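Please predict the structure of the following assembly.
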Amino acid sequence: MKGYDLITPEGTRDLLFEECAVRKREEDKLRYLFITNGYSEVITPALEFYDVFNMKARSFRQESMYKLIDGKGRLMVMRPDSTMPIARIVATRLKGSKKPLKLFYSQNIYRCNPKLSGRDDEILQTGIEIIGGDEKRADLEALSLAARVLCECGSTDTRLELGDNTFYKYLLYALSLEEDEETVRAFIESKNTPELKNWIAEKTETITDGNKKKYAELLLALPRLFGGEEVFETAEKLFCNTELADRLAELKETYNALCRLYDKDSITVDLGLVNKAEYYTGIIFRGYIEEYGQAVISGGRYDTLIGSFGAEECGAIGFAANVNAIASAAIKREEESHVRSADVLVFAKDGYLTEGIRHCTELTQAGVITQFCTCSDEEGAREFAKENSIPKLIVIGENTEIIEIE
Amino acid sequence: MNSNKTIRIALTKGRLEKDTVNLFEKIGYDVSQLRDKGRRLILEIPGADIEVVLAKAADVITYVEHGVCDMGVVGKDTIDEYGGKFFEVCDLGFGRCRFALAVKAGTDFYKGYGVKTIATKYPNVTRRFFEAKGMDVDIVKIEGSVELAPLLSLSDGIVDIVETGTTLKENGLAVYEDVSPISARVIVNPVSMKLKKNDIETLLQKMENNL
């Protein structure tokens, strides 16, 4: 029988040498950023019960999760996301703890992507969650950290994009279109104005109420309300005298604050951001870098999630950065640099192995990256050093000999 | 994303390509390279900072989704079948036809309780259509002329693209029910849309004005 012992499953990969080093370096940068901002790291199991991800307000499509069955026949999944497990922890083990809580994670998530689409099924996500606290302050901090993640990733062209699904949800409610939420969302998410227009026209044909007509117009305008500052001007005209004007003013305030903190051109807004509407309850945001065709940061406010685990309702906001994407962009961008495995190679002649190891230990304790050579003779050691670009070879024998390698 | 400042647009080879090239010509672009392309797959529109890539329909979606092409022109049929994460911003109006359920002329498709068999090149479109009706059907994927399947009694009907219906008629089949309309669409990579907003919107505006 033909086995599969020589390949990795589709959507997964081995990371070697430079690829691995860059991935770890990018991850460390983000972990450092979150640690220095006072966030505490948590690790959750890669295996969770299916139910954690399969309730209203936290629905992941069945077919997008890797599933297993435990010894008792219960359905488990490889976690497709880290926010749900953290909400579970907050609702259980951290139930009585003082809020706000600031948590971060850096762990793999698993998604069953359509086969042969060239997407990663195993993705390293590093992200934060701010649980509780004042909404305005938490929103700004989360967004500001997201902007800093984009700065850290070294791309020359980046965008942090703000949205807020309050507008979309309110309009659906005002037009009594909640039942068709998924249809409308698909149109708005794909900025499919032509079809959205036809669909709304059909649905609101019988409406004579002037207010509702206005709401229908607003809903149709959402996909086009994206860009810079000018979006607010247009939106203010559209939303004035509606219940949404205040929310728009708040969003503008947050946008202006970010513009003062970061390069104004790198902050944009899109009122047509409506992804995961059953889950996000306010501000939504995404981060883009020019080297990658999808968002590398995705986040937002989710005020009902923790309550859905049976705990007291508690507002929260968070985001995750796709480290796979950030690292692969960095590799694409950087000149090919050979990662040197060590600065010094120590070769011990026969009879001097203990001395060799000791010398190695001393050097490493002094902070020199030193490799103990496991080649059988000095000639082999020289060749090894040359091949691996290790500049210095120390031969331990009766005398200690230091050889510079070209 | 394609991080060049030029806009790279993927066209579906064949009729949609021709119609789009005509549209570009109407806009006033120099389409000489596009008309006289030989076997080249990547072409330029001189003086317009636009690069044109020629690809098979489903590949247009793949290239745009991954962001190696900023935009694409592709039929709604392909979008419906393959789906994906991209913006679908404009209906170009040409390449108009429809998905339809066709059966042997004169037969009543819904008669009886047996599970029906449908032959199609578009299993996802077919599945969604019958799912919405709450109907279980067996779907058989056919690569070539789908019309053969009901004639050889492999299936009770077919779901396929219908333009004029001539092929159906000549083979004794008839449209039983329309599934959905089809036309050429412009799709855009979400990151490109955000990072090259002005250039892309200008091009879209020009295309829409010349339809």
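The first strand of chain B starts at residue 7 and ends at 12. Chain B touches chain A through 23 residues (CB under 8 Å).
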